[in-house]
Design goal:
Length: 231
Amino acid sequence: AALALTANRDLLGKRVLITAGGTLEPIDPVRFIGNRSSGKQGVALAMQAKRRGAYVTLIGANISQPDQGVDEFISVATASELEGALMERLQTQDALIMAAAVSDYRVATESTTKLKKIDLGHSLKLELVANPDILASATQSITDLGLKTVVVGFAAETVEKQADLIELALKKIKAKGCDLLVANNVTGGAVFGAEKNTVVIVDQAGQIGESTGSKTTVANAILDELAIRLE
């Protein structure tokens, strides 16, 4: 039993920046475009990285501060706020784990007053514009600045077969330029808010690992791969 309590301290002295949760893009003062991410996997990563000795900065998109605490917690709402907080801290990190679900689009013109149905009638057209690709721009900045930061990206996909998930993950890791990519199948709303997760983890060489179980178990499988690359 004593052995089970001895935490692996393989991230001791490492600075790890983790994003978690889901960004919300305002339409007006009361409405927004969002996604179903609960932030549980990102928080599990933060808790386990802390347990393994890292100095953890958690950027939380629309989630509350975790009870056990991290070294630094920054609360953000939108993709733009998340990007600002991340870029401000990027140069001091050994690793970046992008677990947050970042909205791909935002409303072109946010209304400063509540949009009223009585004024709008039966239909409402919203113009959406693309948000910046934060993962791609972070990896580009790391390259441009000559940093050694190890980057872990995440992708939520809806696929019928595990082989399709792996194929998408291998394509996405090349496009994003990160060191590791974690992909999960969210078909039918699976994973969001759940206690368990099943992921595939791929690297640039096309090596593939899988992890299934509690979000803590999955977090440690991801951190195992990260720790190897931080040695």
